[in-house]
Amino acid sequence: MKHFLASLVCLLAVTVVAATKASVSPIAVGIAIDETSYVVGEDIPVRVMIMNNTPYDVILGRDKTPVATFEVRKYQSKETLPLHVDSTKLGLPTPLKLAPNQKRVFTVKITNAVNMREEANYLVTFGAIYKGMRYDT
Question: Do 50 and 29 meet the contact criterion of CB atoms below 8 Å apart?
């Protein structure tokens, strides 16, 4: 039986620390996978990290606003693949409270939300939403 491989490319968050604290993003995010390729149809667990870089408590996911969103597209394509489920149903707690400088890591199965059943390279981005701003990987 022939196996097809689906490669997943993740953008990893890189935090650039500037000379002043005012220029540091209040929310840092990251994304990681265990493997660089998967068999088509296999569950793909994605670890996402959200960190509060502020000196005060932060709450994400208030008033029906999702904690975060995902975007998936085929590599070198501008078209985003549709999510089959609302991003609030991917296993991220809503609301999500983070203490000052607290980091939380969650594992979600991105294949539960997006049809990735075609052999291709995929680009996944993850963004946390705080005060109407999206902080992306």
Answer: yes
